[in-house]
Amino acid sequence: MKSSTTGEKVRYSEAELKEFEELLLAKLKESKDKLSHLKQSMNRRATGEDDNVNGMKSLEDGADALEKEQLNQLAARTQKYVTQLENALVRIKNGTYGICVSTGKLIPKERLRAVPHTQYSIEAKKGS
């Protein structure tokens, strides 16, 4: 869609938005699968299912605690990414997807393909 005064495109077409929606849905499925796997791993560790057959811990306590913390951090980052992807899908539905919240201009397709959940153009990101 083009602005009547400048001739500059102000939003992506339905076909373009459909392409981004498919990309977001694929990344969302992949991320939810990863999050589910992480949560299962954390549950196994919490219940002691990762102990070896002799009932002894497979790692020293310090290393075990570090691994648990790393799993928790990875799960938290993955959950945040899932939320960002879901929010991007909402922006597609309400017609604001691909519009930089800082500049109001369209975010280039290349950037959206690389970071489909972004709300900022490179120019806005560098300026912040």
TrEMBL record:
Transmembrane segments: none
Superkingdom per UniProt: Bacteria
Positions of region (Disordered): 35-58
Keywords (A to Z) from UniProt: Metal-binding, Zinc, Zinc-finger
The organism's taxonomic lineage, starting at the top: Bacteria, Pseudomonadati, Bacteroidota, Cytophagia, Cytophagales
Xref: InterPro entries: DnaK_N (IPR037187), Znf_DskA_TraR (IPR000962)
Residue span, Zinc finger DksA/TraR C4-type domain: 95-125
Zn-finger region bounds: dksA C4-type: 100-124
PROSITE patterns: ZF_DKSA_2
Protein's UniProt name: RNA polymerase-binding transcription factor DksA
MF annotations from Gene Ontology: zinc ion binding
